[in-house]
Amino acid sequence: SRTISKCYVQVTGMTCASCVANIERNLRQEDGIHSILVALMAGKAEVRYNPAVIHPAAIAELIRELGFGATVMENCGEGDGILELVVRGMTCASCVHKIESTLMKTNGVLYCSVALATNKAHIKYDPEAIGPRDVIQVIKDLGFTTSLVKKDRSASHLDHKQEIRQWKRSFVVSLVFCIPVMGLMIYMMVMDSQLSHAHAHHNMSTEEMEALHSSMALEYQLLPGLSVMNFLSFLLCVPVQVFGGWHFYIQASRALRHNTANMDVLVVLATSIAFLYSFIILLVAMAERAKVNPVTFFDTPPMLFVFISLGRWLEHVAKGKTSEALARLISLQATEATIVTLGPDNVLL
């Protein structure tokens, strides 16, 4: 029969149920992985695997290749087949040997190591055959006092501060360059509206309209086919495309490498098409030395990146508050419990 082990992996960068499904679907196809369960809000994946085929570090690397952050949670598997106890009352190596030999004879205990100097016992057991309370009882029957080692309950892996900083930076960069682009766009819309109004009320010919339109400062051609408006829009769009969209491009490329499409692929597709189309049209107009300036869409990528990065930033802020509440709840877990055993007729034993 196959030996199935379990590990926990901290996963960052997940935004929705699609990310969860993406991780679970891809990892189930890998050799050695028996099952995987991903929790979106907890940012954690529980993986059952065959240690003879794959190990936790390789599982984390598979998740990273899908475009997410992943680190193996070393202490999270404690309590699931592994037990650490503080043992009091040991005086010599004979006590250590007595505990180890008795536990190793106990059905379900796979491994036992007791350290006299630190008063600690490290025990590996089969959860299907024996439980932690049974192990503790065996040691108590030998005349020693024992208790569980206190674990860190801070739930620090639920922190979203890094993602909040990342998306805030992306939003600010996009916004700085988007405001001038929007200003130029609004100015052009107002001027076009005024020209249309003048054309309707003064019976201007089409030639007169084109001449008036081309006399506008932003429509002045620096080079044949290259207007001031298009040149400024291009200069403002490039930093947003590179720095504001950096995280989108990384996530989208990783998704496409695994033949999947997510929200990042959609964003990159929309912004890249708008940018490349505008750039190519501009080059064609310059090559043809066009007198009429081409219609470009350099304003589209900055506006899309601003709104989407703002949404991602607010999303992680909300997640951070939820995770903070979850972490506080986890920290309130009782570290000790009183076991009440009832006999026949519910009489306390």
From TrEMBL:
<dbReference type="GO" id="GO:0060003">
    <property type="term" value="P:copper ion export"/>
</dbReference>
<feature type="transmembrane region" description="Helical">
    <location>
        <begin position="228"/>
        <end position="249"/>
    </location>
</feature>
<keyword id="KW-1278">Translocase</keyword>
<dbReference type="InterPro" id="IPR006122">
    <property type="entry name" value="HMA_Cu_ion-bd"/>
</dbReference>
<dbReference type="InterPro" id="IPR017969">
    <property type="entry name" value="Heavy-metal-associated_CS"/>
</dbReference>
<feature type="domain" description="HMA">
    <location>
        <begin position="5"/>
        <end position="71"/>
    </location>
</feature>
<keyword id="KW-0812">Transmembrane</keyword>
<keyword id="KW-0186">Copper</keyword>
<keyword id="KW-0472">Membrane</keyword>
<keyword id="KW-0406">Ion transport</keyword>
<keyword id="KW-0460">Magnesium</keyword>
<dbReference type="GO" id="GO:0005886">
    <property type="term" value="C:plasma membrane"/>
</dbReference>
<dbReference type="InterPro" id="IPR036163">
    <property type="entry name" value="HMA_dom_sf"/>
</dbReference>
<feature type="transmembrane region" description="Helical">
    <location>
        <begin position="171"/>
        <end position="190"/>
    </location>
</feature>
<dbReference type="GO" id="GO:0005802">
    <property type="term" value="C:trans-Golgi network"/>
</dbReference>
<keyword id="KW-0479">Metal-binding</keyword>
<feature type="domain" description="HMA">
    <location>
        <begin position="81"/>
        <end position="147"/>
    </location>
</feature>
<dbReference type="GO" id="GO:0006878">
    <property type="term" value="P:intracellular copper ion homeostasis"/>
</dbReference>
<dbReference type="InterPro" id="IPR006121">
    <property type="entry name" value="HMA_dom"/>
</dbReference>
<dbReference type="GO" id="GO:0043682">
    <property type="term" value="F:P-type divalent copper transporter activity"/>
</dbReference>
<dbReference type="Pfam" id="PF00403">
    <property type="entry name" value="HMA"/>
</dbReference>
<protein>
    <submittedName>
        <fullName>ATP7A ATPase</fullName>
    </submittedName>
</protein>
<keyword id="KW-1133">Transmembrane helix</keyword>
<dbReference type="GO" id="GO:0015677">
    <property type="term" value="P:copper ion import"/>
</dbReference>
<feature type="transmembrane region" description="Helical">
    <location>
        <begin position="261"/>
        <end position="285"/>
    </location>
</feature>
<keyword id="KW-0813">Transport</keyword>
<keyword id="KW-0187">Copper transport</keyword>
<dbReference type="GO" id="GO:0005507">
    <property type="term" value="F:copper ion binding"/>
</dbReference>
